[in-house]
Amino acid sequence: MANSFPAASFLQRFTAAVAACVIAAGLAVVPPAPALAHGPDSVPDLAERLLDAVVNISTAQTVTARRSVPLPQVPEGSPFQEFFDEFFNRENQNGDQPRRVQSLGSGFVIDGTKGIIVTNNHVIEGADEVTVNFNDGSKLPAEVLGSDSKTDLAVLKVEPDTPLPDVSFGDSEVLRVGDWVMAIGNPFGLGGTVTTGIVSARNRDINSGPYDNYIQTDASINRGNSGGPLFNQDGEVIGINTAIISPSGGSIGIGFAIPSQTAMRVIDQLRQFGETRRGWLGVRIQEVTDEIAESLGMKSAEGALVAGVTEGGPAAAAGLEPGDVILRFDGRSVPEMRDLPRMVADTTIGKQVEVIVLRKGTEVTVMVELGRLEEANLDEAVGTEGEKKQAEPERDTVLGMELSELTDELRKEHNINEDVKGVLVAKVEPGSSAEEKRVQAGDVIVEVAQEPVSSPADVVKQVDRLKQYDRKSALLLLANGRGELRFVPVRVEE
């Protein structure tokens, strides 16, 4: 009978024999690769240490809600008419009764000695009363030191009898996609709740404001988590939970947190001044698309295209011009348009900043002294004299557009301000590239390929020149009737 033994025993003997042969041959034995980590097995110690620093924020607000119930139409003389008249007259008399509205959110203590707490602006916005509820069941009224709607942050202050447990900020810039994170908050009013997940993405733009730069996470975040902290594995706050994407209102694994590097500067200013003080460059910018990059002779689409310069602003004083592409700001590259506003806002007011721009194919360095961003800092038109009336305006057709000189009569017809200079788009051919780019009658062509134009012949000349250089599109600087500028690449058709 043949000898029999378990398969495991055979495998062990075979492995040992192979190893012996390898050693005998003088070769090194390569150890097996370590198993990949599957995240933390458990986080009770970390959660226990942090829970007391996370708080619930409850707010109360008095609102007036007018009841608007329409009076049913009943036939004249109906036995129901008297009943309805009496009922609805009584409802209308009590229609403007004030009522109290309450809401819940989350927050966390960053200075236990001074009682400083951070939360979201939308948690406390419009509130008459703000109360902080602590993990041990105690409550304290809170004062709002300051808030910022653009980053959705608010700073509160309470007066504790003894120092509160607090937490510190970490560096969100070192986060990597896949890093483990932990959220603590007040979902659906349930009190301190701990969830874990990973960093799903960074630098997310969800179109909530000019400084979007969110951390995306799949750690469960629900209603009531707003304002709560997102921790790294060292127990440092690297994000402030602020938004979710969900068709049902509950977590589907797509939550967003404000990075700590964005939040810390805003929080410091709110503590110190009660408001934010951001840098201001004084330009209107737009995205550099692939078509715009090609029309400017750029190798890749990067930077921020200056569409307009505010009169009297820092950029105007430094000599920045519409058509410049800002490539570097204060020693940092500008990968996309949306990166520039955040860079400018985070820069100290009054600082002399080096700005490198691409101007007509050449890199130019400009020194700009940043101003302070105010709500009233809006682009202003530059007043100039109007053009003289011409009886027979020059006309021409190019790139699917019928063009005309800009006369006084045409200004009135299309409601174009006197300070707008250029060539009028009188008509756009259906199906043309110009129509695809939403060029419309009444627009004014100010520049073609960054060269000013004042007549239809100038536009035709510039387009012909682009064709000689085999450019696929012509970059038009367009103005609307109010003088607001935008760049539009229109395909050059043979």
From TrEMBL:
InterPro entries, per database record: PDZ (IPR001478), PDZ_sf (IPR036034), Pept_S1C_Do (IPR011782), Peptidase_S1_PA (IPR009003), Peptidase_S1C (IPR001940)
One Pfam assignment: PDZ
Family: Belongs to the peptidase S1C family.
SMART domains per the UniProt record, alphabetical: PDZ
Keyword vocabulary terms for this entry: Hydrolase, Periplasm, Protease, Repeat, Serine protease, Signal, Stress response
Gene Ontology CC terms, in alphabetical order: periplasmic space
Chief localization: periplasm
PANTHER family per record: PERIPLASMIC SERINE ENDOPROTEASE DEGP-LIKE-RELATED, SERINE PROTEASE FAMILY S1C HTRA-RELATED
Signal sequence annotation: 1-37
Domain of life from the UniProt record: Bacteria
Keyword Signal assigned: yes
Intracellular or extracellular location(s): Periplasm
Species per Swiss-Prot/TrEMBL record: Stappia sediminis
Reaction(s) the record says it catalyses: Acts on substrates that are at least partially unfolded. The cleavage site P1 residue is normally between a pair of hydrophobic residues, such as Val-|-Val
Domain PDZ: residue ranges: 270-361, 381-493
E.C. number: 3.4.21.107
Name assigned to this protein: Probable periplasmic serine endoprotease DegP-like
Chain segments annotated as transmembrane: none
One record GO biological process: proteolysis
SUPFAM superfamilies in UniProt: PDZ domain-like, Trypsin-like serine proteases
MF terms (GO), sorted A to Z: serine-type endopeptidase activity
Catalytic residues as annotated in Swiss-Prot or TrEMBL: H122 (charge relay system), D152 (charge relay system), S226 (charge relay system)
Binding site for substrate: H122, D152, G224, N225, S226
